[in-house]
Design a protein that fits this description.
With 462 residues, the protein is an alpha/beta fold. The protein has three domains: 59 residues, no CATH class; 76 residues, Immunoglobulin-like, CATH 2.60.40; 301 residues, TIM Barrel (Alpha-Beta Barrel). Helices cover 23% and strands 31% of the residues.
Length: 462
Amino acid sequence: MASTVKSGRLVIALLFVGATSCVSGEATVPQTTSTDAPLVATTVDSAPTTTAAPTTTTSTLPVVTLTLDPAEQRALGPEGSVYVSAVDGSWSTSFTATTPSREVTLAQETAVEATFRHAGSDSEVRWTQTVSADSPMLRQPWRADEQRCTLADPEEPVVVIWQSLGDRASYRAQLDAAPDLVTVVSPIWWFVQADGTVSDVADPGYVADVHERGRAIWPAIAGLDADANHLAFTDPSKRLAIAQQLSERANAIGADGINLDIEGYRDEDAAAFTAFVELLVPMVHEWGGIVSYDVIPRTDMWEVTPPELSFWSTAPQRRELAAAVDCMILMAYDQHNRFRPAGPVAAPDWVVENLQYLLRYADGQNVVLGVPFYGRVWDPDALDAPKAVGVSRLPAPGEVSFDSDFNLEKVVLDDGRFYWNESPEELARRLGLVDEFGLAGWAAWRFGFDSPALWDALDPTD
């Protein structure tokens, strides 16, 4: 206890050892002398020349309801949480999808650190901010409400279908067979070559065809070889030249944007690729174009095999790339393939886990959900060579059973081959995630796997 006499008043300051804030049901606050009552500030006034009884005034600290921003809530799965602690170490608590709010008593503005966790383990996603009665929302500081992933008519949904292995006539026929819900086509016209240069097979005539049909076109550049990508993007002068070449060429043919399908680069080359994207985007924006990036799936638990190829999933700098481009297209497929036999291309729960993982790094309104127009038929004697088949062309059912591991039907054919029934109807249900998570739209790999039956399921009103 300390005391001072000032202007005839005796002011007694009680010094407590402990926190000035606490969290209901979570934090442990050090005990005061003999009470469990909420911490209060106490002042005793006494006139020094009299023996009148002292007057005591108390005021409790305000209770503040801290709440996870909806964008952070959407990034949480059943085993996910956001752990929040005061920077001074005085209290901590956790938020989940089912408990997105917590009551906290705060004496003043408090600096906190927040960390995304999965099954109790910290992730790399963390941030600091100040909370108070006037600012109770927990939200990563980079988040914004602006939607950059839009078309010329911002009311139109973004629906992108890739095109590959064709020419102008076949691409035009594919587009003519598609319903009006398709708003963007993305033919792969540029390729990163083994020597790090970029080849160009762009067709200005098809650009005109697309525009005549009222659609937008975002030609794609593909880079699927780690060694070639290393040569192309780690040399500063070369990546600048490629960025200029792509932007100028896309503008010259009248494209509406560029799609970056650079999927295979190693962890040590990630910063160099991000630097390339940061060079390219302002160039494309100068002529009014859109830049989209195709990001490989990743979840907290999914193991990419074989291990020597795990960099496909781990290398992309998701936060930096999401900050640079207009659209992040999540390729939520190839859960199983010849490297990872055997299973569905994209089980429903796995797709959601990928989406939640990406939404820690990107705003939903700038994310596009990529879906497969194909399934895989597996031969038990050749699991390293499954056959990709359009989802509406999977073989007629044989023996059907429900696979609870993937929440899909598994079909075993008479000859022993098998597949998981990723049907057009299942794909249509998956597109409900666009509204559920507030996404910009969806994309599909690819034309050529589509069919009238598929389009009927995806667009029954057409």
